[in-house]
Design goal:
The chain is α/β, with parallel strands linked by helices. It folds into two domains: about 190 residues, Pyruvate-ferredoxin Oxidoreductase, domain 3 (3-Layer(aba) Sandwich), CATH 3.40.920; about 100 residues, 2-Layer Sandwich (Alpha-Beta Plaits), CATH 3.30.70. It is built from nine helices and eleven strands. Helix 1 packs across helix 5 and helix 5 runs antiparallel to helix 6. It is globular.
């Protein structure tokens, strides 16, 4: 099978794709589908693999696809450090994980976001590139399927060479065998991911420089770790941002309805409800709720289920200005 010529390759002859995501969004499976479509249905040589820590919903995940010409062997299985195509599955990663490291001028990027390409350009401080923005989360909720198929549509669109029919064929094969009732929804999600986004070309822009890739080195190693493996810095969740664990919904607090009963605080596994002692209009000392610290909220929505007066409701995160609505837990600690 003769595959189309790759639009760009690195010095080793590869076209590299990196997908940045969090556990539960299906980036690992998306990488498998994309690689199978490109290799078995389009004729490229290639490889797919992923990088992640504990397999837990909410943890960072990277999925890689490396393609090359049919007559070339794949001899490099190292992680993709300088992607020609970058796909960002989770907007929550922006600002929390260095997802654009190694992304160079002239590359392309697909982002699951409600922002415009212009806003993404400034938010991520990208070098000159082409940007495709699509609200894959909204598509997945409306079609009742995972958002990875919508993102595969976006990847196919911004790539300029990956055949959408090849990807759809693999999706049908993989999903149809086990979940035939989900095929139509995934096909619709893919088509919407391909057609419903907004693309802009900033290839000539020099507004922001490239961010070189660098591997994070641990502070402690075999040469300087304490004797006996003593942990000198105990863990503390006050410095851990859980925002990347959320997959679309957040609890939203309605102050005018709240009776300050504290049930939400009792059920919250991460203690992200912010309360403060004060006096009521009769001078009685009470504890009043001030809001939710979204830095530590992972979106489990247990507080919504337990609230007796519906003062907490489940809302789509993209419709809420989280930074504006956030109550700072540190102010009362």
């Amino acid at each position: 099978m003769s595959a189309p010529k790759l639009p760009i390759i690195n010095e080793l002859g590869y076209y590299d794709i990196r997908m940045e995501s969090i556990g539960g969004m299906g980036a690992n499976l998306a990488g498998q589908i994309l690689a199978e479509a490109c290799i078995l249905r389009m004729g490229y040589n290639g490889v797919n693999f992923a990088s992640y820590g504990s397999e837990k919903k909410g943890t960072p995940v990277k999925s890689f696809v490396r393609l090359c010409a049919t007559d070339q062997e794949v001899t490099d299985n190292s992680p993709v450090e300088q992607p020609h195509l970058l796909a960002v599955f989770a907007e929550q990663l922006i600002g929390n994980v260095p997802i654009t490291q190694g992304f160079g001028k002239g590359s392309v990027i697909a982002v699951n976001t409600v922002l415009t390409p212009e806003e993404v350009m400034d938010e991520l401080k990208l070098p000159g590139c082409r940007i495709y923005c699509v609200d894959a989360l909204k598509i997945s909720m409306e079609e009742k399927v995972p958002l990875n198929t919508a993102m595969l549509g976006a990847v196919s669109k911004i790539s300029g060479f990956i055949d959408p029919e090849a990807i759809k064929g693999v999706i049908k094969d993989k999903i149809g065998k086990r979940y035939p009732h989900l095929v139509d929804g995934n096909m619709k999600a893919f088509d919407r991911g391909y057609n419903d986004g907004h693309e802009a070309d900033f290839s000539d822009s020099d507004k922001y420089p490239e961010v070189p890739f660098h591997r994070v080195q641990p502070d402690l190693g075999y040469e300087n770790e304490p004797m006996g493996g003593i942990i000198t810095n105990p863990g503390n969740t006050i410095v851990k941002n859980h925002a990347a664990s959320r997959v679309g919904y957040i609890p939203f607090w309605h102050e005018d309805i709240c009776i300050h009963c504290g049930d939400c605080d009792l059920t919250c596994p991460d203690h992200c409800m912010v309360f403060e002692k004060s006096t009521d209009d009769k001078g009685k000392e009470m504890v009043f709720m001030l809001g939710i610290d979204y830095n530590y909220c992972k979106g489990c929505l247990r507080c919504v289920d337990i609230c007796p007066v519906d003062a907490l409701t489940a809302e789509v995160e993209s419709t809420v200005d989280v930074k504006k609505e956030r109550a700072d837990l540190r102010r009362v600690l």
